[in-house]
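Bench log. Compound arrived from synthesis this morning; before running ITC I wanted a structural hypothesis for how flavin-adenine dinucleotide sits in the protein. Inputs:
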Amino acid sequence: MKHIYQPGAFGLSIEIFPPRTEQGDASLFENLHRLRAYNPAFISCTYGAGGSTQTRTVELCERIQQELDTPATAHLTCVGSTVDDLCDWLAFASSRSIRNIMALRGDPPQGSHEFQSVAGGLDHASELVSLIRRQVPEMGIGVAGYPEKHPEAVDAKSDLDFLKRKVDAGADAVFTQLFYVNDNFLRFRDAYHAAGISIPLIPGIMPITSYARIKRITGMCQAIFPNELASRLEHVQDDDAAQFEIGVDYAIAQCRELMDAGVPGLHFYVLNRSDACERILDALNLHPAH
Ligand SMILES: Cc1cc2nc3c(=O)[nH]c(=O)nc-3n(C[C@H](O)[C@H](O)[C@H](O)COP(=O)(O)OP(=O)(O)OC[C@H]3O[C@@H](n4cnc5c(N)ncnc54)[C@H](O)[C@@H]3O)c2cc1C
């Protein structure tokens, strides 16, 4: 990550999650091969809630690097791990040639609103960033930022102060939670710069491919969903293809505006499928062949 966001270089990144089945793996790699054509700066792989995919994440990242010849970023959370466990994971990831990590705290368990670290574990992502910097100083480190405030944060100001701690601890780039209201991102970016943070801030984009699914996801992460967009999608709630088209058009317009505003990259939450993302990148002329 340290070497990805150079001035003038646009960084496209793709986030996927570990599939649960062999069929899911096959479909994922078919989709990633298609996205590989857009020359992403890296592909990142999430780390399952409750630590369920700890080794899977690293193994998938290793396969991405070998098979697609594209740098991979492995996500890591503090959930369910002691500092010793985290150190073991870092050693394992390094031994598998992982050079970039997305350092996260993780979510509270389902049904609870409060994050609980295990005895001997870490409470905040900033501590994880410090640990990674200590253990593997050369690792590229990404962290999460919240243009519309993290759901647990008391207010936007304290949330930004805590983000700054992650940056001061050694993060190289900030990737945002998904959002659909660009003005909220741009206001956040102003505050980010005013707080003296200068590392790259990359907006997180989740193309809408299904209204039901996006309602569930935005509900979980409390992203603001514009009423006008919701009512357009509601009008076609029985028509999957129409929802897809509305989602693609919205994302194209959203990304275009962000690129005009000078963002250094785009981080796509693709939910393991390439079709919407391909359409968006083509429309944005981000295909290397263009
Ligand atoms: C790009 C991206 C990738 C993600 N990938 C994954 C993944 O792979 N797996 C997964 O399970 N989840 C993932 N998440 C979700 C993430 O784990 C949750 O949003 C989680 O609730 C917060 O993680 P964080 O790293 O932002 O935590 P933190 O930065 O620790 O912040 C969490 C909350 O604590 C507050 N806080 C921070 N430091 C302090 C402090 N010192 N004292 C008091 N309060 C503090 C913050 O304001 C915030 O409200 C991802 C999110 C993003 C944006």
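What the model suggests: The beta strands are 11-16, 42-45, 72-77, 100-104, 140-145, 173-178, 201-205, 265-269. The chain has one domain: 11-283.
ITC booked for Thursday regardless.
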